[in-house]
Specification:
With 365 residues, the protein is an alpha+beta fold. Helices cover 21% and strands 35% of the residues. It contains eight helices and 19 strands. The chain is elongated, with a radius of gyration of 31 Å. It binds zinc ion (2 copies).
Length: 365
Amino acid sequence: VVDAERFSLCETCAGRQGDGAGFDLAEGSGCFICHGLTSSLASTERRIVREARRHQFETFSVGMILPAGVQEREDRLRSELRIRGRATIKSQLTGKIASFIQSELDKKVDRLHPDLTAVVDLATDTVNLTTKSIFVYGRYTKPRGLSQRRTVCERCNGRGCGACDGGYARTPSLEAVVDNRLVRLLGAQRTKFTWFGSEDPDSLVYPPGRPFVVEVKNPRKRKTPARLALRTGKGLAKISGLKVLKGRPSSIPSFTFETRAFIESETPVDPSALRSRRVKGTISVEYRNNKDKVVNKKVYRLRIRAKGKNMVAEIKLDGGLPVKRFVGGDSVYPSLSELLKTPLKCQRFDILRVWESGDLEFGKI
Ligand SMILES: [Zn+2]
Ligand SMILES: [Zn+2]
C-alpha cells in the first residue's frame, strides 16, 4: 500500500491493520489513531485487577468508552487506504484487558450475564466495576411492635434527604434491619424485597418464619450466611434458611398460613353455642380485594376458644386473605362474624406458620 507511510502508528495500532501495510512506527502519543492510549493500558489493567480482587465473582466482561476521535481516526485511515483491517481498537483493547484479568484472577469471560462488569473509560481514565444482583431467599421471625416494611420518607417522597435513610423513614422495620445487615455484609448498594404476604406491626411472627426473597443490588460478595440474628429495638428478628438463588424468580408460589387471632366479641360468647356452630371442613370464602376484584379463598381449619367476650381463634387459611377482614366481615363473605352470628373484632393476630405450595420458578437465564 503506497500511502501507508503518511500515517505514523504505534505497534499495537499498526498490527491491527493487517500484515505488511508499511506504516511508520511511532512511539506513545505520536500514534495517529490512539495518541498513546495503548501504551498506557498496562496501568489500567493493573488497576482493574486490583479493584476486581475486592469482589467475589466467577465470570466477568469488559466494556470500554474511547476518547472522542479515536474510532473515527481508525475508520478514516482504513477508508483512505482501502484496508479492511482486523479487530477495531475497542475490541482489541477490551480483549487485552479481559485476557489479563483471566490470567491474573483465573475467571471466565461471560458477555451476556457476567457476575462482574468492568467499564473502562479511557476518555476520563476511570474504571467502574459493577456486579449482577443476587437473589436471596430466607424466612424471618419478627417481634411484636415492628413493622414488616420500610415506609417511604414523607419529606422527600423517597428521593432521599437529610432526615431519612436513603428515601425511607428512619423508624425501624424488619425490612430496614435486614437491608442494613445485608448491604454491609455483602458490600451491596441496596436491596429490593418481595414478600410472601404481610402482617401488622403488632403481629408476632413465630419460627420457622415467613418467607421472603430479596434482590441484593451491586454486591461485592455473592455468598450469605445461612442465618442472621438482628436487633430491632423491639426484640430480635431471626432470619434463617438464607440461600442465594440461581437467578431472579419469575414468580412467587402461592402459600397458606396459620394465624392465632385475638378477637373481641360484642356479646359474651357461650362456649357451648360455639361448639354447636362449630365449623367443620374447608370453608370457601369470597374476598373483594382493594382493586375491587372478587377472589376466591379458602379457610382450611378453625379452632376457637372463648372466655366471656374474648376469643382466641387459630385459623389456617389461604395467603392473601386478610385475617382482620375475615374475622370482622369487611369485604369477606362469609366472615367469622357471620359464621358465629355475632359481631367480632380482631384485635391482633400472630403468624404461627407459613406453608409454600410450590417451588420458586425461574425464567430462562
Ligand atoms: Zn496506537
Ligand atoms: Zn427523605
